[in-house]
Amino acid sequence: MGSLRDIYEIRWHGRGGQGAVTGSIILAEASSLEGLYSQAFPEFGPERRGAPVTAYTRISKRYIRTRAPIEDPDIVVVLDPSIPASTYLKRLKRDGYVVINTKRSAKDIAESLGIRGVVSVDGTSLALKILGSPIVNIAMLGALAKILNIVTLDSIARAVLKILYNIQTIGSLETILKSPGLGETAMGNIAVLSEAYRSAEVLL
After folding, report:
1. Averaged pLDDT for residues 57-64
2. Which range of residues forms the domain containing residue 198?
3. Where does the pLDDT of residue 132 fall: very low under 50, low under 70, confident under 90, or very high at 90 and above?
């Protein structure tokens, strides 16, 4: 997406155990690393495995005064493609984007949904291949970074390590990937993030 508006609002849709709430928190932390104001919160308390989960991230150049649920998102991030389109498309802005975990092409998704802006990534396959787990939130953050250019992939990588592992890092994603001693799982998540960013298909 282009230059920073006064505020960006991102709504996350997934199921319990896929990491939607954690993904929203990581994005807020990455935004803070960029010197922006941010907030993240779930719609309904803790996640229950398999149950629908909605979470929110706001990013702004100015102090954020509201904590109301996001009703008119700029971007929706869909971690589970079985969620009904009517749920995640609800009140999406006309120039908004759907970032979706799917094996289908961005063009196919756009045509089936009747929208223009789509980012598609096979996050499940990436997570299973690299981590051996179907938790897709990190892959979705990588895909989201393709269009949310106000938050760099480097900052998201640093936020992943801070939120998930309490590891403080500096420098670029490339530097982090070469860092010794981060641990296999931590490095796996950074690899998922990087590969999702590389492989995500964007339709503007």
Report:
1. 95
2. 7-203
3. very high
Looking up residue 62, the CATH number of its domain turns out to be 3.40.920.10
Query: Does residue 151 lie in a domain region?
Result: yes
Nearest-angstrom CA–CA distance, 59 and 85: 24
The answer to whether residue 198 is domain-embedded is: yes
Query: pTM for the full model?
Result: 0.95
Question: What would the mean pLDDT of 74-84 be, rounded to a whole number?
Answer: 97
User: Strand pairing partners for 38?
Assistant: 59
Structure tokens at 121: 């990534």
In a domain, 2, yes or no: no
- Which pLDDT value is given to residue 1? 66
Q: Is residue 45 part of a domain?
A: yes
| Domain total of the chain | 1
Report the interhelical angle of 137-144 vs 20-33 (nearest 10°). Answer: 40
Kindly write down the DSSP assignment for every residue of the chain, as one continuous string. --S--SEEEEEEEEEBTS-HHHHHHHHHHHHHHTT-EEEEEESSSS--BTSEEEEEEEEESS-----PPPSS-SEEEES-TTS-HHHHSTT--TT-EEEEE-SS-HHHHHHHHT-SEEEEE-HHHHHHHHHSS---HHHHHHHHTTT-TTS-HHHHHHHHHHHHH-----S-HHHHHT-TTS-HHHHHHHHHHHHHHHH-EEE-
- Digit-coded pLDDT (tens) for 148-195: 989 999 999 999 999 999 999 988 988 888 888 899 999 999 999 999
Instruction: Show the tokens assigned to 164.
Output: 């998930």
